[in-house]
Inverse folding.
C-alpha cells in the first residue's frame, strides 16, 4: 500500500473500532514502528481537518479514536435520541481531581484529602467509566487503587495526563499532590481506625 492507502486503512480501522485503539495494536496490524504510525496519524488528522470533516482524531494517552466534533453534538443527540448526561456534582469533580492528580490512589487516601466519606462518589465515577481499578495496595486488607480512564481523557479533551492543568501556587496545602508515603500512612491510619471502635468514622 502507498501512504494514502495506509492513511485510509488507518481511518477505517479506527472508525470500525468505535473505542480507543492502542498504538501497539495499530503498529501490529500495519506492521510498522511507532515513528511511522505517528506520521500516519498526523496525516490522518490533517486530512480530516482539510476536508472540514465532522469527525476528528482523538489522542488518548497511547491510544487513538475517531469521534464526532463537539460542535455537532446536538445533531448527533437528535439523530439517536440521546439524553444529555447528568453533569457531575461538585463532590464528584473534587474526588475526580484528587484521583487524577495523585493516581493510583485508594478511596481512603481521597477521603483523607477531602475530609469526608467518598465511597458513593467513587462508585458513581466507576459506573461512569471516569475511573477504574488499578490493582491493590500491598497492605492489610489490600485496598483497591484507582486511576483515571481513557473516557476521562476524552471527556475533558486531554490527550494525556501530562496535559492536566497545573495546580495553582496558592492551593491549600491539603489539596496539593501527596506522596506515596502519605498514601501508605493514610492506609495504616485507616486500618487502626477499623480495629478500634472508639475511633471509627460515623456513618
Amino acid at each position: 500500500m502507498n501512504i494514502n492507502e495506509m492513511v485510509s486503512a488507518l481511518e477505517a480501522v479506527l472508525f470500525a473500532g468505535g473505542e480507543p485503539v492502542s498504538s501497539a495494536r495499530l503498529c501490529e496490524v500495519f506492521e510498522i514502528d511507532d515513528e511511522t504510525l505517528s506520521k500516519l496519524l498526523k496525516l490522518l488528522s490533517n486530512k480530516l481537518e482539510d476536508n472540514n470533516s465532522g469527525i476528528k482524531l482523538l489522542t488518548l494517552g497511547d491510544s487513538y479514536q475517531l469521534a464526532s466534533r463537539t460542535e455537532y453534538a446536538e445533531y448527533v443527540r437528535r439523530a439517536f435520541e440521546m439524553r444529555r448526561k447528568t453533569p457531575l456534582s461538585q463532590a464528584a469533580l473534587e474526588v475526580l481531581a484528587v484521583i487524577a492528580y495523585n493516581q493510583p490512589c485508594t478511596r481512603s487516601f481521597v477521603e483523607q484529602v477531602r475530609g469526608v466519606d467518598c465511597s458513593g462518589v467513587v462508585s458513581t465515577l466507576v459506573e461512569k467509566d471516569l475511573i477504574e481499578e488499578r490493582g491493590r495496595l500491598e497492605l492489610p486488607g489490600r485496598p483497591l487503587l484507582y486511576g483515571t480512564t481513557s473516557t476521562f481523557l476524552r471527556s475533558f479533551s486531554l490527550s494525556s495526563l501530562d496535559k492536566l492543568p497545573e495546580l495553582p501556587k496558592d492551593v491549600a496545602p491539603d489539596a496539593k499532590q501527596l506522596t506515596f508515603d502519605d498514601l501508605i500512612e493514610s492506609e495504616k491510619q485507616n486500618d487502626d481506625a477499623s480495629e478500634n471502635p472508639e475511633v471509627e468514622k460515623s456513618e
Summary: The first helix runs from residue 3 to 17. The first strand starts at residue 21 and ends at 22. The beta strands are 21-22, 55-60, 63-68, 131-136, 144-148.
